[in-house]
Ferritin-like domain-containing protein
Amino acid sequence: MATTKKTAKTETKSLEDLFLDGLKDLYYAEKKILRALPKMAKGAESEEVTAAFEKHRAETEGQVERLDQVFELFGKSARGKTCPAIDGILEEGSDILEEYKGAPALDAGLVAAAQAVEHYEIARYGTLIAWAEQLGKPEAVELLKATLDEETATDEALSALGEGGVNERALQQAA
Amino acid sequence: MATTKKTAKTETKSLEDLFLDGLKDLYYAEKKILRALPKMAKGAESEEVTAAFEKHRAETEGQVERLDQVFELFGKSARGKTCPAIDGILEEGSDILEEYKGAPALDAGLVAAAQAVEHYEIARYGTLIAWAEQLGKPEAVELLKATLDEETATDEALSALGEGGVNERALQQAA
């Protein structure tokens, strides 16, 4: 939240400030996702959903490294800034893990929760790419695009999992 | 959060429960977005960003009505369920309004915040469509698809606004 001290400076805040705030938001988000994915992988019923979360966990490590590099390109140390959006999105994933434990619909709910995470990242990386272009930072654009491509591919893979059997299995009533 | 009482029932939870939980989540989200958009419209610097938020506010009213109809198709009364994800995403929009007030980058930040909202909705409507198909509810699918198309078009319109001048104006340093 803005403090009185911050407000005094707002009028000089330009696109680079906005970009760096967004970068810190994503840095916090990626690190939090890195901690959440093993819990989701462990909680999933089916091997294919577990494998999808484990694969994305490994990818996320590389995405954090790319963010480190983008901070460097802007001459800044990498650091996060609390991101209430990802906190809320991941909280919904934890709720699914608790409320659907042992239920036929658990994996369908986990896949959906992961897609909400992916879409948040797709929105934020898309924005940061547009801003990095405007700021004349082509190397940052390339790094961010590499991650955006991975997030988009992950979202598509999750849709395919849902439609490829996970949603159908969720239809079953438990015995 | 799951309570002990809820846990006792989890094992019977199937895809329809998950669908209805998701519907309540979106109902809460749309109603909250309906209250947030006028503040964002009023806070924006440029007429074009204000107009985009006002247009989407009008659209959102229709989206709430479609959700009412989907609840009816499932024989349920429309009601919301607190959605920490949209709470967090909208909190980030409020922070932009405060922290960038009077700054050249304000509108670029607001457009980005609105795109995060759209992407959350795109993820959730996409999921509900897949589940409604699986549940054999073609009328619900049609209603949800009509809204998904609007959300996707809004996201694209916001990207075009950003790239069509809003991001460039954010580059200016205030005098």
